# Entry
Amino acid sequence: MTPVEWLSAVLMILAGVFFLGGTVGILRFPDTHSRLHALTKADNLGLGILVFALILQAASVAIALKLLLAWVLALVASAASSFLIAGSAAAAEVQAGASAGEADA
Amino acid sequence: MLELALDSVLGIGVVWLAWKALTGEDPYRSAVLYIAFGLVMALAWVRLEAPDIALAEAAIGAGLTGALLLDAASQLSRRNDGPTDRGQRRDRARESRPDGMPQGGAVRSRKATDALVPAGALLLGGVVAVGIAGVAGEPGGLTGLADHSLERSGVTHGVTAVLLNFRAFDTLLEVGVLLAAVLAMLVVRRTSDLEGVLPPSAAAPVVKLAAGVLVPLMILMAGYLLWLGTHAPGGAFQAGAVLASAAVLLFLAGHRSIGGLGATTLAVILVCGLAGFLTAGIVTLAAGLRLLELPPAWAGPTILLIEGTLAISIGGTLAALFLGARARAPGDVQAEIGPANSAPE
# Structure
């Protein structure tokens, strides 16, 4: 294997480590916000490293650009959906706090 | 060896996810598990060397149907409990009542006939396995004939040639089924347009920005997938699914164009696919050929035209199925429906 292929393989394993870490975080963290934090590490950073590893092996510049575009679009989508999930969780917490306060009063 | 490991993980994963999705108590959990099931299924299709089906499964099965299920789960919970915290509902469901049954949700008592479902599934699986074992090893039935006729079909991708030329009649009937499904939805909702569909709460600015970036790219992607179908995995169904997703994203961003879709526009969008297909059939009949027998010189442009109208129709159908659940039927008192997405200001 050429050095470029070695580098590509190492980067893919590193991306796998990030995805594994993100998944463990989602399963083990206590609440929604910290789970989102773990998810974005896997989604953005892991995917970015994986895309970079694949670009090193890409057959043409067009394919490399398409891979890069896939990563950028995943960033945009995950940013928007993380924001929505966090907002909905925060609103639910506020409601739970309010109804618990009413139950006490 | 590695492939066997990957295939077994995919196979076991598909069955396990389906089981978990079907037997869950919480509708949200089941919907999310269904989405995961769709994605693993798409990977399985890729391993079976069927990338067109994998694309369609990921876009329609996991994406749009998953969104439909999540939407239905959220509307069910709002009607049953009111806007309570989902965590509270889960905790209440876990506490047992004095007779040992879990609270909340729909719980049936166990009956003797409950064993019939797994037994029937196992029986069906056994029959399918025996059938597959008998077929394996025989030369492919019509594959040779299809490959031989590929040059005369007008496209260079085998799947598109079969779907839109050799077996165009089957695809025509499929499109008719899709139209019947969306008509059924419109009848049940007692509405004929998508006016009044927008959520009453304003969408968060982040969603608007994301929609502004993603929707033009999605429309471009739909056109690309449509053109790609002539020589690579792609085609009308995949392009239509991407168009429908763009419409759903516009809805989530509260864009005016979704709420203003009148009855005539909606009717035209939903029907144009079937109409285009039928027109092609009528023209071939009028020219003295058999139904949908495309002459080789005209086949390429005709297929592209049919696929174009099909993509618009499929996109409109899938989007209408998602959005129609929110449309105001006459005499409906609209509860506070809408994603709880506004950040605390």
